[in-house]
Specification:
about 200 residues, alpha/beta, 8-stranded parallel barrel, two-stranded antiparallel sheet
Length: about 200
């Protein structure tokens, strides 16, 4: 099965367009104010203007107010919501939109138990754990912690062109998610790194 790719933390339209042209299945927009990749709704509209067909737009939130999520859904062509905080199943499900729930893979985690509550999630994004940091750590985690779950797994955390082939071969995820691993500075993607990453995914 082909491994899907989401490139997250887009802040410029030219980067989103390049990702789509080079085979990315999804782009991610960050609406978490503390992130260096955070966007306003108006900025996000510029990023996704004219996005190619069949490229999913994913919006990332961390413990947001419901009003912010609704505002983004009304203003943007969002296909999937990604919740990266401690959101309850009821909160995630109220927007009547497919959603992904992120899980930080701290040592000793019971992954099956962690996914049980969010039975209606379309998939689970597994990311590295760092105290006080909800995501975007740029660190990998111990992939052997991943157990079989009955929803698609999206592997994140410290991926880049140097390790994504090994990650895919070991974990066999439905998709991989990359942000910092294809940047030249925070929020600014490197087209060369995106191309290299996509090649290694294909090679895997």
């Amino acid at each position: 099965m082909r491994t899907r790719v989401k490139i997250c933390g887009m802040t410029r339209r030219q980067d989103a367009d390049f990702a789509a042209e080079n085979g990315a299945d999804a782009i991610g927009l960050v609406f978490y104010p503390s992130s260096p990749r955070a966007l306003t709704v108006a900025q996000a509209q510029e990023v996704v203007a004219g996005i190619a067909p069949f490229v999913s737009v994913v919006s990332l939130f961390v413990n947001p107010e419901a009003e912010l999520v609704s505002q983004c859904l009304d203003a943007l062509p969002i296909d999937i919501i990604q919740f990266h905080g401690d959101e309850s199943p009821a909160f995630c499900e109220q927007f009547a939109r497919p959603y992904i729930k992120a899980i930080r893979m701290k040592p000793g985690i019971d992954l099956k138990k962690a996914t049980e509550a969010h039975r209606k999630a379309s998939g689970f994004l597994l990311d590295a754990y760092q105290p006080g940091v909800p995501g975007g750590t740029g660190k990998t985690f111990d992939w052997s912690l991943i157990a079989d779950i009955d929803r698609p797994v999206i592997l994140a955390g410290g991926l880049n062109a140097d390790n994504v082939r090994q990650a895919i071969q070991q974990v066999r995820p439905f998709a991989v998610d990359v942000s910092g691993g294809v940047e030249r500075e925070k929020g600014i993607k490197s087209h060369e790194k995106m191309s290299a990453f996509m090649r290694e995914v294909a090679n895997a």
